Amino acid sequence: MSTALKTYNYFVKEQKEIKNIVKEHQYDHLLWFGSAYYVPVLNEILLKEGEQPIDYAIDNNSKKWGSIVERFEGKNGLCEVGENAITKGVKIVSPSEAKMLEGKKAVFITSKYGKEMKCQAMELGFEQNDIYCFPSTIEECIMKEKEIVSKMENSYRLNLREIQLRELEIL
Hints:
The structure is a single chain. The chain is about 45% helix and about 20% strand. It has about 170 residues and is of the alpha/beta class. Strand 1 (about 30-35), helix 3 and strand 2 form a beta-alpha-beta unit.
């Protein structure tokens, strides 16, 4: 299993929540505000399951605007989504560019600065009911990936719940 997918296993709950939100509200665009480096892995899984992918990643850093995130990037280095990948990457846009997109938009926030980012999104005019904040555990898990992977490498075959519990102990 790739490093990206090892880390991704922790986000099964968030993946299910995203799928439920999208089915319930029928959004035209899904926007990711926060750590975008694992979005290609998330999109790959969503697309394989016939679900709507994340369209754009929002970032406040103007140096990132216009770039494409095509692979998972964690503390252990890079992990390509794969040569047979369905997704081709996610474009990073400015918050104001994201707001100008036509149609109904959902903003998913994953950051330790979630409260501030939600306020910023609301100031830009995104509807409060269309902003979804996930715990910053996604960002924390990515930052502690090396520790998680080293502890998991010495483990015998675990089920998903046992993996999640061990990751929570580390976080």
